[in-house]
């Protein structure tokens, strides 16, 4: 008999000794000890594979198989700990094409910008827009059109001259094959004090501008390769004083569903703070304030990589997801920068998403870091001691340090 779990050992389980007659033996396998002798473990694994391939050993029976899309049911079946044999997930079934809720994306296709086409960049004179324009020009399209709301910024004339010198700026003499909607205007104010003018200032460039681009491209019967809308994490997690800006970005995330249902290319990128280019990078005080709260700053290359995926993404109609954890998946929406450099359960984390229930998984991922030791040091010390001496589980803990109490406190943060 081989024991591969610790539940019965920790719980002081007992066995009838007569089961070990006829030269039977009992052995416990502690997977945690594998880390101490990796070379020896590798040797034994290779022997097991050799025995299996030669037919000297066979899989443990019985085997309870679940489809890959039913992994939730597999865990529920395993949870009581009363099953016999093995539980496995069947990824491929002979002669049957399984339907999966998740979409497995292939490696992004290389972006082929045609030299006989034009590409329209709306609002592309900011720091991020300039980086994207330069990135596209390096791919040698013959024309690359950049349009701003006014083009009257202190550095706009110099950048336009640079584009003209590269023969990448001018009137559209070739068919437009791609559109990047990058316009944005910030007019922050508390919602209770926000005026209609402030609301419209932030929403019109994205809402009205996107509708105008959509209607114009349809009226002109443009055969677009991509229609990418630049959205923001403000529409996902929100930011104080940016109700107008968040509303404009949630519109973009919804608008692509309208275009995709028409069979037209469309995708959005919800971009977080970019640390080396763009609006936030030019305000060092604001950037430092955001990063000090745990906000993760993106790199320019990360944005370009995400844009490449969005530009090469083929229109994929959304569908309801059969997973119990989610009922809808938008395959044409990409989120960049949703994370934190400081664990969400750390007292030093002051991000606005800290108490968002949707961020609960990040609490789990960050719970093992040193920064969270101050809040649960007693429980961690107890568990570490129990690994060395399982008899500690038979001793009574103080009520305020008990496991149920600690779990209840953790769950209360999301109530």
From TrEMBL:
What is a single molecular function from GO for this protein?
A: fatty acid synthase activity
Domain (Ketoreductase) spans 117-277
Which SMART domains does the record cross-reference, listed alphabetically?
Answer: PKS_KR
InterPro entries referenced in this protein's UniProt entry, alphabetically: KR_dom (IPR057326), NAD(P)-bd_dom_sf (IPR036291), PKS_KR (IPR013968), PKS_NRPS_Biosynth_Enz (IPR050091)
Q: Which GO terms describe its biological process?
A: fatty acid biosynthetic process; secondary metabolite biosynthetic process
- The protein here is known as KR domain-containing protein
């Amino acid at each position: 008999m081989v024991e591969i779990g610790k539940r019965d050992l920790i719980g002081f389980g007992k066995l009838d000794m007569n089961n070990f007659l006829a030269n039977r033996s009992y052995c416990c396998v502690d997977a945690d000890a594998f880390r101490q002798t990796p070379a020896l473990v590798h040797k034994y694994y290779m022997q097991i594979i050799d025995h299996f391939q030669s037919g000297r050993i066979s899989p443990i029976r019985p085997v309870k198989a679940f489809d890959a899309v039913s992994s939730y049911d597999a865990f529920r079946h395993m949870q009581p700990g009363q099953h016999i044999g093995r539980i496995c997930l069947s990824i491929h079934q002979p002669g049957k094409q399984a339907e999966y809720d998740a979409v497995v994306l292939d490696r992004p296709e290389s972006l082929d910008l045609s030299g006989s086409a034009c590409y329209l960049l709306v609002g592309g004179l900011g720091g991020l827009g300039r980086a994207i324009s330069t990135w596209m020009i390096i791919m040698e399209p013959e024309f690359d059109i950049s349009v701003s709301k006014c083009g009257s910024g202190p550095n706009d004339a110099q950048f336009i001259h640079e584009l003209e010198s590269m023969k990448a700026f001018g009137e559209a003499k070739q068919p437009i094959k791609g559109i990047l909607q990058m316009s944005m205007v910030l007019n922050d104010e508390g919602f209770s004090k926000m005026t209609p003018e402030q609301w419209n200032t932030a929403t019109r460039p994205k809402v009205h501008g996107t509708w105008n681009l959509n209607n114009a491209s349809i009226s002109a019967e443009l055969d677009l390769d991509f229609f990418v809308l630049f959205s923001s994490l403000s529409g996902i997690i929100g930011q104080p004083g940016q109700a107008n800006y968040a509303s404009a970005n949630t519109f973009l995330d919804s608008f692509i569903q309208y275009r995709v249902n028409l069979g037209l290319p469309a995708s959005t990128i919800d971009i977080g703070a970019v640390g080396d280019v763009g609006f936030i990078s030019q305000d060092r005080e604001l950037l430092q304030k955001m990063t000090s709260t745990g906000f993760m700053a993106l790199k320019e290359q990360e944005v370009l990589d995400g844009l490449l995926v969005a530009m090469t993404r083929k229109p994929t109609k959304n569908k309801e997801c059969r997973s119990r954890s989610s009922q809808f998946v938008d395959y044409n929406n990409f989120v960049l920068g949703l994370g934190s450099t400081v664990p969400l359960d750390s007292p030093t984390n002051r991000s606005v998403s800290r108490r968002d229930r949707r961020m609960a998984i990040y609490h789990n991922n960050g719970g093992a870091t040193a920064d969270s030791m101050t809040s649960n040091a007693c429980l961690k010390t107890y568990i570490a001691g129990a690994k060395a001496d399982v008899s500690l589980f038979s001793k009574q803990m103080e009520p305020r340090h008990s496991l149920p109490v600690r779990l209840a406190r953790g769950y209360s943060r999301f109530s």
